[in-house]
Structures are given as C-alpha cells and as structure tokens.
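@channel anyone free to eyeball this complex?
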Amino acid sequence: MFNDKKIGALYVAPFVIGFLLFTAFPFVASFVLSLTDAQLQDQLGSANFTGLQNYTEMGRDATFQKSLGVTFFYVFITVPLKLAFALFIAVVLNFKLRAIGFFRTAYYLPSILGGSVAIAIVWRFVFAGDGLINQALEMIGITGVNWLGEPNTAMFSIILLRLWQFGSAMVVFLAGLKAIPEDLYEAADLDGASRMRQFWMITLPLLTPVLFFNFIMQIVQAFQEFNGPYIITGGGPLKSSYLLPLMIYEEGFKYFNLGYSSALSWVLFVIIAIFTAIAFWSQKHWVFYAQESDKNRGDKK
Amino acid sequence: MTSSSVRLSAVTKSFNGTDVIKGVSLDVKKGELVVFVGPSGCGKSTLLRLIAGLETPTSGEIVIADKDVTYAHPSKRGVAMVFQSYALYPHMTVEDNIAFALKIQGRPKAEIRAKVHEVAEILQLDHLLQRRPKALSGGQRQRVAIGRAIVREPDVFLFDEPLSNLDASLRGQMRVEIARLHRKLGATSVYVTHDQVEAMTLADKIVVLRAGLVEQVGSPMTLYRHPANLFVAGFIGSPRMNILPATYAGATSDSVRIQTAQGSLIIPRKDVSKPTSDKIQLGLRPESLSLAAPGAEAHLTGYVTLIERLGGETFAYVALKEFECEPIIIKLDGETAVHNHQEVALTIDLKRAHIFDADGLALGHALDFNPDVV
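replying in thread with the prediction:
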C-alpha cells in the first residue's frame, strides 16, 4: 500500500510540519509584520504596510537605545566571565581526585535547574531587600544593599544568574580537556614546563575549537536572555536591566505593537548573526583544528 | 665519577596494591644502549617511566649521572624521552616542537635557532621546519620526536617503543637510523620494545623482563647463545627455540647424557649439577638442526608437515616420531629440496643444544660459556 518514499515522507513529516508551522512560518511572518503597523488586537490583514518605518523609528526611540546598550553590556560581561569560570571549574574537575565523579555531578547540578522561572524566583528572594544575601551580610555586621533597587546591582544579580548556569559550557570544556593526550603533558613535564605554562602553551591552544563552540553558544544564549530580567527585576530600575528580549516581549504583548516588536526581533536576529559571522571569520586566526589540512603541504621533497 | 650512567637499586612499583615492578637492580654504563624487552605487561614501560620520573617508585633508588633522582622532577633528571605516540605538540610547527624545551629554559633566541637547525640537519628535517606534525609522515614525526630529545643534550635518552606505530619497512629503516644516531652521539640510551629483533639489532645490552622481574641481562649474543632459562630462550630468537621433553641420565664434567623418546644423546655441557627432577627439557634452535647426510648418524627422525620458503632460507616443520610434542622447526638453506610428508633424518649440532631443568632454569653451561663476558 505504502511504497518506501511514502513511508520515508511519513517519518519525517512530524518534524517538517513542526518546523514549517513553528519556525519557518513565524520567521517569515515576523519579517512581514515588521514592515507593518500591526497591533496585537487587530483583525488579521487589517494592518497597513509602513515600509521601514518601524526600523527608522528605533533611531528615535530612547528606550530602544538604552535597551541596546544594556544588552551589549550584559553580553560583553557575562560571556567572557562565564567562559572563564566554566573553563576554570572544568580544569579543576579534570584533576585526578578522589570522588571526582561526585564533584562533577554536583557542579553540573545548577545547570539542570538552569535559568528556569523557578530559579529566577528563588533569585529574587535571595537578592530581595530582606533576602538571603542581606540577612547573611547583616550577621557579619554589614548593612545590606538594595540589590534589585539600584541600577548597578540589579544588573549584577542578573549577570550572576547566568554565571551560575556554567554547567553546560563546563561539560563541553571537560570533554575537550579529556581529549588532550596525557603524553603531551608528560613531554612538557620532561621539558620543564610549569603547570601554568602547560596550560597556556598546550591546553588552551588545543582547546580553542571547544572554546569557539562555547563562545558561539554563549553569545547566542546571552543575547536571548529573558527569564532573569523579566522575573527578577522587570527590566528596572530605570531600565537598567531592560534587555532587548524583554523589550521585544513588552512591545508585543504589553503595548500590543506587534509590528514594532517584530522589527526589534529582526534587529536582535541581525545582531546575533553579525556576532556569529565575526566569530566564524576570526577563527582562522585563533582556533586550532588538529584535523585541518596543513597549508604548507606543497613543499614536500 | 663512576662509569655508570643510570643505576637502579631494588626498585619496586605498585599500582593500587598490584606489584608491577618487583625489585629491579640494574646498571647502565655511560654511552651504552640498553634495551628493555619482554611481553606486554612485563613492566618494561613502567620501568622506563620510573627512570623518566613520570612515575615515582614505591621503594628503591634511582641514580642518574651520580645524582640520586629517585624523587626528582622529570625535568631535573637530565633525561629526554621519545614517546610511542611521539607526543608532538599538534598546534606547533616542527621548529617550535624542537625548540620547546629550550624556550622553556629561557635560552637566547639566536642560540635556540642555531641549535634547532643543527638538529634538523642531523635528522634531515631542515625542509620540514615550518610544517605542523599532521602534515608529516610517520617516519618524519618520529624523527621530530627524536630531534626534540636530542636538542636538549640530555645525559640519558629514553625511548618508549618508538617504532611500534610505523609500518614494517619504515620500522627497519628507522631502526638503522637510531643505531646510526646512537653511534654518532654516543649518548646513554634506554630503549623499550617488545620486538626481539629490535632488541637484538640495537642493543649493547638487553634486559629481559617478565612480570616485573629481570630474567636475564646480557649482550644480544650472550642471551641468544646462553639463555639463563626457558623464558629467555623462547623470547630471544625467531623462529622460537624448539623444546623437547627428555630425561636426565647422568653427567660428567663436560657432558650430560639425556634420554629422549628416540634414544639417548650426549650433550657437551659444563657445570651441570644433578637436577632435583629427572624430567628435563631439550632446547634446540632451528639452525642447530640440519638434514642428516646420507649414511651419517641421525639424532632424530620424523616427517615434514609444512614448508615455508622465504627465498634465502626455508623453514621446515617436522613432526618427530615417538615424541608427544608440536612439530619442531628446522632452518634450511633456501634451495634445499624437501617436500611435504617426506621422511627426514635430522642431525643436531650438539654443542649448541640447551638443557633446562623442570623449573625451566638452564642446566649447566655450554662449553664456550665465559662468565666474564655478559
């Protein structure tokens, strides 16, 4: 009744339908919407085509510019910090220690809990005026800070939430560390290289493919951070933690400016694409692949 | 100053309660190339790593160039090592790989450059200096690994099965190259291999190891001609020594009488004391057996079960009459006319026959054995 082709099509159908419906269609639709003055409550098809007006509007929108600045600040701080922290923990967890399996699991746990809504709520309590941190500070005689009420410290609490989800990057680093042959370190030991020099001269260069992968993943994730600002700070105070994804959400679903919100999404998309492209372009200068073909191969004698 | 370059005294090593090295004492003289050989798991690589400082002994003492280095850091021992996997830094060029140790030592740039080029010339790597290891052939990588060791001018070179990743023809070539290099540099070297041909051809002195203990130490020919026990006799020499069951039937000052399934033999041998058990074993190398000339006395008879012709030489497998053992191998001239199922009479070069007691220890010595020459 069914031939092979039909059966094959049947197997891939769920993905194809899901992809078309939930990825491809919104992708295209959001671009179309970004060129209109669509409102969330409007009838479908009643929006007017406004060309690039939404995009030019951003140039005059102080909130957008503030949000963009805050987003860049957030990404530029969290990505390097998180990569460095994940790498540090991975290096420590790569030591041959007793019960290392337990520590690896324990350090990965925060990432299983992750940046979920529940954890973000916990975070809010931890950093609240009468929260855990201030209570602890009080015990040692230090007056607490209004963490979520001050523009500087509010951002700090969101950055910290992202840092504590270092687990997935750490696991990838750990796998990369394990892939470096032990005898390279033994050879370096015989050559008299200290642990520190071994790290800089052997570990780090050989880890660059993993570092590159983690870098891309972290850049993409950081630009899309939503839970933290939405639940913990609400973007405030004074829009000091008003990351772009939160603005996109609020423009669309709070102020019903679907057209403008879509345009903001596309700007975010282009920003992420540019950063990813720069990273890919730059990798030939700093990423070392053990398997890549050598360019100097021509001089064989 | 002593003439000893590396000295191990009662060195032991256990991993998690398992004894891997069970008390090894050894002297390596200055300029000597000593080969550790033995089956896998015999502890030869561990012993090398103990000398390198990559492992710490459980007990015992290691002295290199008159300095006690038992617990010294690997870089403070004056040793350089060539690893089985070459352990080249994949992200560095050949030049940087060779220069690595000198850079770490903080030597001046001009000196490093000069040294690297000198070493590259010795090893014919000069045209490859800007390449990365992955763009090199196995043999070239091996040479870079050796270059990295040479450039440090160590007291002792350590080689950990350096040729085992190469194909057979390249292995032969590199073996010759290492021998040439050793003669040229005259450096003390310790070389680990499981390949007895490598051991025989390279070594000034072979150390045969089994299960963490030294079975015998001696020059290649000493081990070949005067194996101290069945293990060494079986391990050194290819094809292996043939072993036949026999019975002890008395000895004089220069001979032993033994009884085999095909009659009695008198074997020239000295220093023979009566074994605890009369059950003994007769060891015959393939080349100490030949086809008996017509009319001449034959020591053994049997029939041919298989012939291997290698061109210059022929190996014939002969099933012996009356014996309950595997067919023995005899080495014949390549042109010898033999065929399958042929009945053959064999002559033994009795001076070259070996006898082992029930525990596998050599019974007495061949008449030409000189205890002062090892």
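from a first look: The two ends of chain A are 63 Å apart (CA to CA).
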